[in-house]
Write a structure and sequence with these properties.
Elements (H helix, E strand, L loop, with lengths): L6 H11 L11 H7 L3 E2 L3 H9 L7 H9 L4 E5 L5 E5 L3 H27 L5 H19 L4 H5 L8 E4 L7 E4 H11 L3 E6 L8 E5 L13 H16 L4 H8 L3 H11 L2 E5 L2 E5 L14 E4 L13 H4 L3 H4 L9 E4 L2 E8 L5 E5 L5 H18 L13 H7 L1
Antiparallel strand pairs: 1-3, 2-3, 4-5, 6-7, 8-9, 10-11, 11-12, 12-13
């Protein structure tokens, strides 16, 4: 077994690599996204807040401009069939290493639904034809919601059944599921939302309007290696199981990618781990730092094994399907959570004693989050409220 890397060193690396220590903050949303590989985007508001708390300046419009004006960030369905925001450099890696596999599964699901619906004997041919219809309609419009596209051709309004036979069985126009598939295939991209920056209803645009070269630039094996390398640079040292969980890959895929990278083996408090071979030096020290991270922030969602920064607080901060709510950090570990009360004010709850100096630093971080929110109220639309959120908002 190689060098031992203890919990204190892992926390120090986290503060610097994830740009949470004050001296490690970035200048742009792109730098933040690349430092974390990608930003979790199931909740659109998390993208803005995850970026801004790691930057030296900027506001909501800074992130919005990068997403929808400069188009230097792109939203795509990636790891674990989860929506992420990544730079135009990293997005093709995610597309090849993760999204292609997701797209193949989504295509099989949609073909099964269309077969049940009875669109004809040649289901795959029907799907290819209707996909072209949707893409041509989208090109003509420039951008559109699925509902708007449904009005352009009656085939896009074909009804499919979701969760057939279940208590929550439902029906929807095929265009909604089709756009999800085309997004996973990298042919369309989620664009500006209809509503505020925190809205979940996004329009769709052709991917070539974001990046003329599209996202089909890597072979899957090469992309898996490079994505693994970038993940280890940001989240290492870690266990191979953490990489497998984060990507949604099989053990074989992880083993193959790591064999190409040839990381160094290290000993962690939780057992054997790996780190990039040129990343064995201990990081320089930094001043202790406090941070309020939004729900589904990429840092707490970066590892499967979380005890080294989470302790025993998991049941109060994660919902029953593994999604974290707003978390409160002190110098590399989670010490509580936060939420907005009925008046919109930020309320913090400590789950352990961290001392008066640390509490004062948290107050400063809370004031910064209040400023970044600009009076907006956050809602847990894509996940269930955690136990602590329910306590703080009761």
């Amino acid at each position: 077994m190689g060098r031992r890397i203890d919990v204190a060193e892992r926390r120090a690396r986290l503060g610097q690599r994830h740009r949470l220590a004050a001296t490690a903050r970035a200048g742009t949303p792109i730098q933040v996204a690349d430092s974390l590989v990608a930003l979790h985007s199931t909740d659109p508001s998390s993208v803005y807040l995850s970026a801004l708390i790691r930057m030296t300046g900027g506001d909501l419009r800074t992130v919005e401009h990068a997403l929808y004006e400069d188009r230097t960030l792109i939203r795509l369905l990636g790891m674990r069939r989860t929506v992420f925001v990544a730079s135009l450099e990293v997005a093709p890696l995610i597309q090849a290493a993760c999204s292609r596999g997701v797209a193949a599964k989504e295509r099989r699901k949609l073909i099964a639904m269309l077969t049940e619906t009875g669109v004809g004997d040649d289901v795959e041919g029907w799907l290819a034809e209707v996909s072209d219809v949707a893409l041509q309609a989208l090109l003509a419009r420039g951008s559109a919601t699925a509902a708007e596209l449904a009005g352009d051709d009656p085939r896009l309004r074909t009804q499919i059944v979701l969760a057939r036979g279940k208590d929550y069985e439902g029906r929807q126009n095929v265009v909604s599921r089709l756009m999800l598939l085309l997004g996973a295939e990298g042919r369309v991209v989620r664009g500006r939302p209809r509503g505020t920056w925190a809205s979940h209803q996004h329009s769709w645009s052709p991917t070539t309007s974001w990046t003329p070269d599209g996202l089909d630039q890597w072979s899957t094996p090469d992309a898996e290696v490079e994505l693994s390398r970038r993940w280890l640079a940001a989240y290492g040292p870690a266990r191979p199981q953490d990489l497998q969980w984060w990507t949604g890959w099989t053990k074989t895929q992880v083993k193959r990618a790591l064999a190409e990278i040839r990381p160094a083996e290290v000993e962690l408090d939780t057992g054997p781990g790996v780190v990039l071979a040129d990343d064995l030096d201990a990081p320089p020290g930094t001043e202790p730092w406090a941070a309020l991270l939004p729900a589904l922030d990429p840092t707490p969602m970066g590892w499967q094994q979380r005890h080294w920064y989470l302790g025993e607080h998991g049941p109060k901060l994660f919902d029953n399907v593994g999604n974290i709510g707003p978390s409160l950090w002190w110098d590399g570990r989670i010490v509580g959570g936060w939420a907005q009360d009925s008046g919109g004010d930020i309320v913090c709850r400590f789950l352990e004693d961290i001392g008066s100096d640390a509490e004062a630093a948290v107050e400063v971080a809370a004031a910064r989050m209040t400023e970044l929110l600009e009076g907006h109220r956050l809602t847990a639309r894509t996940r269930r409220k955690t136990w602590l959120e329910q306590e703080l908002t009761a």
